[in-house]
Amino acid sequence: MARARGPAGSKRKLGLWLKEQRTKAGFTGKQVANELGCGDPKVFRMEGGHAVPSKLELDHLFELFGIEDDRERDLIRQLAADAKSRHWTSEFESVMPPKFDIYVGREEDATSVRVYETHLIQGLLQTEDHMRPLLTATNPQEPASDVERLVEFRKRRQRILDRDPDPLNLWVVMDEASIRRPVGGVEVHRAQLQHLLDLTGKPNVNIQVIPESVGAHAGLSGPFSILEFEPDEPEMIYIEGQGGNLYLDKAREIRRHKQLWNHIVDVAMSTAATTRYIKKAMEELPS
């Protein structure tokens, strides 16, 4: 089992291990809860990566599941300790959207992320000068100081693209409107488009655009992200909206969104055609 890169990933890995061992040992969640002296919901929260067992609970689970290997016990104890550690996102708790730290933690632990955007340039691809007017406009109730913190937060997330070793593999498909909207004015927009061209030179970044001429397509139901992890871990779907964020990990939902993704990619321009399109969009900007 590979070590996770942060507490969110550690919780997820620990939860998967607990569920796997419970199933192998032939226990139900209720039986485990009775053994631990807690309610069923706590067991399911631990298995879902939302809670961490105490040291005493973990030792009890080792005995219950028949885990005798000292190396495995030490590895799981370390995973539990990592899961309880503070993450860098805690510095931005006062300005982050509710529970967004969960997404950032899983984004960091992912090997690849596929994103479909309908009307915005994806956050990991934005320049600082693009972020600032965008975050000001989309958070009209927030003071300028909080907007600056949000800019810092997004820039910190972007480090994942240059992570050494193993930078995140990012594949973004955007509707044409994302490329045409001059957030921050013409010069800021020109620099943002140049930044996209620069990013296409990275081996771990893939950008494609869907032209408006396509008309109706599978992505018009809304933006979403598909996060992929190590081979032994299930994928996750993330959907961000005004009413809150959704984290989906059921096989049916993953299958549905992967099918949507395939349809979206089918109607998008190739990466080479996207590069030519972005260059053309820059040339058409007023001087």
Architecture overview:
- This protein has 287 residues and is an alpha/beta fold.
- The chain folds into two domains: 7-83, 434 Repressor (Amino-terminal Domain), CATH 1.10.260; 93-283, Endonuclease, Chain A, CATH 3.30.870.
- It contains twelve helices and six strands.
- The protein has a six-stranded mixed beta sheet, with helices on both faces.
- The termini are far apart.
- The model has no long low-confidence stretch (mean pLDDT 94).
SSE arrangement:
Layout: H1 7-25, H2 29-36, H3 40-47, H4 55-65, H5 70-83, H6 100-109, E1 112-117, H7 128-138, H8 144-158, E2 169-175, H9 176-180, H10 186-199, E3 205-210, E4 224-228, E5 236-241, E6 244-248, H11 251-267, H12 271-283
Parallel strand pairs: 1-2, 2-3
Antiparallel strand pairs: 1-4, 4-5, 5-6
| CATH-level-2 architecture of the largest domain | 2-Layer Sandwich
Strand order of the largest sheet: 3-2-1-4-5-6
Shape: elongated
Structural class of the helix and strand makeup? alpha/beta
How many structural domains can be distinguished in the coordinates?
A: 2
Mean pLDDT: 94
Element pattern in H and E: HHHHHHEHHEHHEEEEHH
Helix content: 40-55%
User: Count of helical segments?
Assistant: 12
CATH top level class name of the largest domain = Alpha Beta
Number of distinct beta strands: 6
Beta content comes to 5-15%
